[in-house]
Structure formats: C-alpha cells, structure tokens
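Table S2 (text version). Query chain:
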Amino acid sequence: MHADAPPTTLPPSMTVKKRPIWPTVVGIILIAFGALGLFEGIVGAMVVFMYPTDLLREGPGGDAMAEMLKSPTYYAMAAVTAVISLIGLWGGILLLRRRSAGRMVLLVWAVIALIQVLLGAVWQYIMMRDMMGAIVAEMGMSAQQQAIVDGIVQLFGVFIVVLSVVLNLALPVFTLVWLNRHKIREQVAQW
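Corresponding structure-token output:
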C-alpha cells in the first residue's frame, strides 16, 4: 500500500449517521389509522341523519336498530372514536416530523385506545345481543327453537367481540411496546 493512497474508511468525525426509518413507517401507519378512525367517528354520528327512521325500522330487529342508533350512547361512542382517532393522527404526524412530543402523545393515545376498545367490546356485545334477541323474538319461534338460536347468537356474539378486541388492540399494544423500547426512547430523546 502506498503512503499517498486514500484511507479505506472515514474517520469517526466524518461518518454520516443513517436516520432510522421506523418513525416514517410507524408515523404513516398511525396517520392512516387515525384518519380512518376519524372518518368512522364522523360517519357513525351522521348515519342516523342519512337514513329515515321509517327505513331503519323495516325488517326483523329494525326497531332495536333504530333505537340503538338514536341512543346517546351511540353518539358518545362515535364522538369518543373521533377524538381518540384525532389524538392518534396528531401523534402520527408528530412522529413523522420526528418531534419528541409525538412519543408522549402516542403513549397517551395507546392507553386511551386500549380502554376504549375494552369498553366498546362490552357495549358491542350488549348491543348485538339485544338486536339479535329482538330479531329472534319477531320470528315467532317456539321456546325450544328460540333457546337454540339464543345460544348460537351468544356464541357468535362472543366470537365477534373477541375477534374485534384482538384486532383493535394490536396497534395500541404495538405502539406501547415499541415506544417504550430503550433504543427507541434514546432515539426520540435526540430529536
């Protein structure tokens, strides 16, 4: 090797640190889900105004459906969904911009979202049970047939709610775990 040959590696003071890609990926995912949740909350609150009450009452269980959609609980759940989604959207934007406040916003969002998912699951199960009970009652079945259908409806309701909970918990749980990793906390502290 010649004395005049350039060094094969750069000195430590001249090395370029590669920016981690995770804030972009996680930020975009949170922005997308936040926007979808905000849309769901807004449309959920507006659905009552989109359908005439008479149309909602048609068919088996229509009265139960109309009452559910007119209840204050339904509006509250739609509003809570919109607000929580807005917090997640905001946190995703902060993360995408690499603002350290994004981590705290997203940790708060994840905890609130976990609580909402669990409370929403209880409400969803009760609503589904009542609506299916109303549909079965309107069909004019015998007591034995009604007991069989009730059992199937309860089992199906539990399955749907459990599946919904598992899917809806995935992003908040991932966010809590990811943003609490030591390496991630150190990277965020440098922003």
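Notes on Table S2: The radius of gyration is 25 Å. Residues 55 and 160 are 26 Å apart (CA to CA).
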